[in-house]
Write a structure and sequence with these properties.
alpha+beta, 3-methyladenine DNA Glycosylase, Chain A, 4 helices, 8 strands
């Protein structure tokens, strides 16, 4: 694949039916892998915006790097919802992060959505980010939430139902999945819990983690 072809946005055929909850693996690591190639869909007043998920990180049960490690709080209670709900939080006071709850109700764990390949309504994403470069629109967890206007108002949303934000079914031809350590954490740093679409120019992180 040439570089020009690699940077073409994804093309979606038809609509974006929500992923049935029954199809989501009841396991955080399995869900992190499963979500690669699926779609993240956001309905806005300007139109429906979407991107293909190309990078995730798993924050498993008992993970010292996870927000559920010390138990449920008013801030993280969405992580303890049944798998397939949104947990949105503000990181360092400047960027929102989107996670998907990943275990049975009452058990805290989640999958961080780290990067998207822009697919639908790219012009809306460009206006939201105030940039035009396709590769950088949603390459990173803070960038993708800004591109799709995701904030704390969407915390707790059921991502398996069509609404303001949902997980959409993806194509079968998603490519090879790579695995590495996670990015930007200080605890449990050596665990291979980051998953990404190999050879995708939309994946974030250092080159040594994307081979």
């Amino acid at each position: 694949m040439g570089r020009a072809d690699a940077l073409k946005p994804g093309r979606q055929e038809g609509g974006h039916p929500p992923l049935p909850r029954a199809e989501l693996p009841v396991d955080t690591v399995s869900l992190a892998r499963f979500l690669i190639g699926k779609n993240l869909v956001r309905e806005t007043a300007e139109g429906v915006v979407s991107g293909r998920i190309v990078e995730t990180e798993a924050y498993v049960i008992g993970d010292a790097a996870g927000h559920a490690y010390r138990g449920m709080t008013p801030r993280n209670r969405s992580l303890f919802l049944e798998r397939g709900h949104a947990y949105v939080y503000l990181a360092y006071g400047r960027a929102y992060m989107l996670n998907v709850s990943s275990e049975p109700a009452g058990i805290g764990a989640g999958v961080l959505i780290r990067a998207l390949e822009p697919c639908d309504s790219i012009s809306i994403m460009q206006r939201n980010r105030n940039i035009t470069r396709l590769r950088d629109l949603a390459r990173g967890p803070g960038r993708l939430t800004a591109a799709l206007r995701i904030d704390r108002r969407l915390d707790g949303v059921d991502l398996c139902r069509e609404g303001a934000l949902w997980l959409g079914c993806g194509g079968d031809n998603r490519g090879a999945i790579g695995q590495s350590t996670r990015i930007g954490i200080t605890r449990d740093v050596n665990r291979l819990l980051r998953f990404y679409l190999r050879d995708s120019p939309f994946v974030s992180g250092p080159r040594l983690l994307t081979g």
